[in-house]
Amino acid sequence: MKKIVLLLLFIFNLTFSQKKITEKSEMFYYSLDLYSEHYADKEFKLSAAVRIENFLPNSKLDMGFIEKDEDQKYINYTSLYYDNVRNTDWKTYEVKGTINPKSKNFSVSIICRNKGDFYFDDFKLQIKNDRGKWETIKLENPGFEEGINLKQWNNFVNNGNQIEPENFTYTHTTEKPFKGKSCLHIKGTDILGSSSHGKFLEANGVQLYYETYGEGEPLLLLHGNGQSINAFSKQVEEYAKHYKVILVDCRGRGNSGYQDDVELTFDVEIEDLKQFLEKINIEKTHIVGWSDGGILGILMAIKHPEKVDKMVSMAGNIFPAGMIDKEELMDYIKQLEKLNDKHQYDKNIDFIYLDYKYPNLDYKDLNVITSKCLIMAGDRDEIKTEHTVKIFENIPNAQLAIVPNATHYLPSKNPELFNQIVLRFLKE
What we know:
Keywords: Hydrolase. InterPro entries: AB_hydrolase_1, AB_hydrolase_fold. The chain contains eight helices and 22 strands. The chain folds into two domains: 20-188, Jelly Rolls, CATH 2.60.120; 199-427, Rossmann fold. The radius of gyration is 23 Å and the shape is globular. The chain is α/β, with parallel strands linked by helices. The chain has an eight-stranded mixed sheet with strand order 15-16-18-17-19-20-21-22, sandwiched between helices. Strands 3, 6, 8, 9, 13 and 14 form a six-stranded antiparallel sheet that branches. A five-stranded antiparallel sheet has the order 5-4-7-2-10, with no helix packed on it. The protein starts with 19 loop residues before the first strand and ends with a helix.
């Protein structure tokens, strides 16, 4: 099944390392590691003062408490992720819960996503002791009064390498601290999906956010359900050498707007794209779609063939049963509905229902496609291989690429191979 990633947090080995790697990222991760077996099965409260400035709709400020087992494997993360922090003045937030009995190692974490100025101060962690009293746990430099010391608070570490995102800077600043003389300031700039040259336009009743790169024939990149423009961070630079690359956040994703009173369907999204292309004066374009973007590419080729030149559909399906584990989507929906007391998960539920209910094409519907098409998937994809093959067989003059030892996430896991296949097809 196409897993809907509700919390894009990848935690590996969170230990300090001298080796530093610089790379582009839409996320900045900063953590303070704690080690104590005595915390297991105890109640906790973590609080901090935070504020955010110069942000876009997809910007996200988060802080929380990570639990890991004795092998440093992730168990739980309690955070502000769904609080949608938007305050420009200082405000103290608290996350609380009960620590898993299997938890042995812990981290107090800060996560910043996309463009913005993110400020943090006055961290405080309390654990309820065996006498039922709240005990304050000593944190190193909780108010960021001392100089930056990566042996205390450190960057995201992956396989022993310290990751330094190119798009973020961080410092202790004396500008308007919440308490004391300084606070932590993290700044994210010019990230794919929240770039300084990004634009908004109205299409089909919503504001759509888009970015363009390069020159030449237009190439529209369409992301998956739980994704945004940033999903193509490993494609844009290479594709922009050959094409005018156009990326757009689908409604409700990234920076684009949403209509709570309009059912989210692929037909609605197709109308969004049709109007979007008309308003940016694109008469005809190549399309590369991934996952739900692959579905949109197929539907555009059926419903608006005059607008589609060549089309690549990576891991798209034409009806829900084409997924390997469709019913797991309903399990996700039921879990979220139980937690949705404040309607904080309404959009997430809509997104999952989109794949659970739609699209509803027949194989014969593909016979009308006149665009030159490449149908792709991994041999370990979340779309059934036989379904991908049947899609290929029913599109006249289509090409098929089932990539060995590849998953649903081929464009991000093996971008060199994916890009090579796609560009070779587009240039034929």
